[in-house]
Every structure is written in structure tokens, then in C-alpha cells.
Amino acid sequence: MERPCVRVAREDGEATRQRLDDAALLDHDHEIVHEDGELFLPVTDPAAVPADLSVVPRDVPVREGQTLPADLLGFEPTYERLGDIVIVDEDDDERAREVAAAIMESSIPAETVLNRASKVKGEQRVREWDVLAGDGTETVHREYGSEFLVDVAEMYFSPRLATERHRVVQQVESGERVFDMFAGVGPFVIPAARRGATAVGVDINETAIEYLRANAERNGVADRVTAIAGDARETTGEYAGWADRLVMNLPHSADEFLDTAVELAGEDCVLHYYDIQHEDDPYGPGEAAIREAAEPAGYDIEVETRHTVRSYAPHELNVCLDVRLF
């Protein structure tokens, strides 16, 4: 069966395998293939594979003893895994339940199958779900060595952004002060603290903040993490001028919080600003908004990275600007 695979030299195989597995990208349902000094590592989501790795299509055998949903359905369903939850996105209820039944009968280690029942909505960025099989919407997601307890019905969380989160966190140095203005359950905050940073996470979703605190304990970094429930715009009194690094992952409306970000920024601060813009000019509006907020406060601006995270919709891109304020 042809699957997307990461192709690496044999000597790099184990390190790459572990890297993909830590990011929950390794496809455990198919075998790793060896050929002519190279390894082909099957992956679950080629779009999330780090850019420095090569992804190619390759025929790889199903792992011996494994039964996949496609074997039972006669077609290849689309799904993604979050811990022991499998998420599908089917408009037809009968088809959705057929897919869910096949997933539960297959060798996939699933406890629950959910179907998206609405778009992400509201200031707390949650969506509705149909529980097709199993019970509950809580699971533990593992990502690059960190563990996150998450309830998808109560808070926003996207496993597809694992690689982007890792890209940002790899820039964090021990001793930094990191402020995440829209922290959720902590997928930026927790790994930053694991790298030795002091981290503050704010979110308007009180339940997400409870989970962030639990995740800080789970990952052994509670002494370096402060979790605050509320609007990030109301935290600048205590943390004005505090941050060495700011994360603003609220791409539809981060520009509304830029004045607050500037107040939080220290004398030399890196801002990770997420945006969604038309492909004709994906970075210009964000850069202009940052300059408009920061320059009157006396900051010089240096755009260190212009990075496309993923395609969001036809002709629209989800992008990140890594910007130094100094």
C-alpha cells in the first residue's frame, strides 16, 4: 500500500524514527522499509513533517497482524489521532458511523471516535462533537517528549501544529521569560519550561487553564509555570516589561492584542505573531500592524523569520512572523 514516508539514510534512521514518534507522526500501522542504504518511515500526516525531512510516496506493507479501517471498509477513510481518540470529519452521519465502527474493529488503539459537528467558535475556540463510539472527549496527547491532558470538547487543541510548536520552542534558551498570551493547555508553555524557561500562560478559558496547571505538574515543571485565567489584556500591570519571548497564536484576531504585547515586552523581546492572510500578501498586514504598535513605544523592529505554517483555506495561509523588538 502506498503511504507518505520520510526517506532518510540508514545511519540517521533511529534518530529520525524517535523524532517522528515523539511528534506523534510515525505511522505504527505500516512497516518501516529498508532499501539500498535508506529507510522509509511511514507517517500519518505528511503536511506536519518538519521541512528538513524529505517525504516521498512509497509502497509499504501493513504491519503484520494489523487490520486497518480500509481493510474493513473497502475505501481509505480520512482520520487523525489525538491520544486514544480518533477524529473523523464526515458530513454524512451513516458514513461517519460506518467509519467509526471500522476504526473500533481495526487494530488502531482507539478508545473513542469523534466526528466534528461544528466549526471552532466563540472566544473560547471550542467546537461541538458527535461521539460515534466509546465515551468521553478527554485524552492524553504526547508531543516531542511532553504530555498534555486535553478535553477537546472544553478547549481548542490541534495536534497538526506540533511541528510548528516545536520550531518555536527550539528557540527558547534556559533562563528566558516566556509569555504565551493564548496558552490553552500549555503546548508552548510546558515545553518552554522543560527547556529551563520561566513561563506564564494566559487563557480566557478557565477550564483550559486548569488543564495547563495539571499538565505543568504532569511534566514536572510546575515550579516554572504560572497559569492565569483571563483576558491577556488585563495582565500587563504585573508583567509589564517582563517578557523575553511572546507567543501570540490567535491568528484571526492577534492584531487586537498587539498594544498589550508591546507593554509586556522587555527591552529585547522576540514576538511569535500568528496570522491568516491572503496568499498574495501573507506577511505584509502582520508586519504593518506590529510596526504600528511597537514603533511609537520606542522599539526598533527586525523580522527574523517569515514562516508559512500551513494552508488554511483556498488562497489563504496561516503564517507566523518571528519579530525581534529591541
From TrEMBL:
SUPFAM superfamilies cross-referenced by the UniProt entry: S-adenosyl-L-methionine-dependent methyltransferases
Keyword Methyltransferase: yes
Single Gene Ontology BP annotation: tRNA N1-guanine methylation
Classification via Pfam families: TRM5-TYW2_MTfase, Trm5_N, TYW2_N_2
Domain called SAM-dependent methyltransferase TRM5/TYW2-type: residue spans: 79-326
Keywords, sorted A to Z: Cytoplasm, Methyltransferase, S-adenosyl-L-methionine, Transferase, tRNA processing
Gene Ontology CC, one term: cytoplasm
GO molecular function, one term: tRNA methyltransferase activity
Classification via InterPro entries: MeTrfase_TRM5/TYW2 (IPR030382), SAM-dependent_MTases_sf (IPR029063), TRM5-TYW2-like_MTfase (IPR056743), TRM5/TYW2-like_N (IPR056744), Trm5a/b_N (IPR040601)
Protein's name in the database: Wybutosine (YW) biosynthesis enzyme, Trm5 methyltransferase
Species this protein is from: Halapricum desulfuricans
Organism classification: Archaea, Methanobacteriati, Methanobacteriota, Stenosarchaea group, Halobacteria
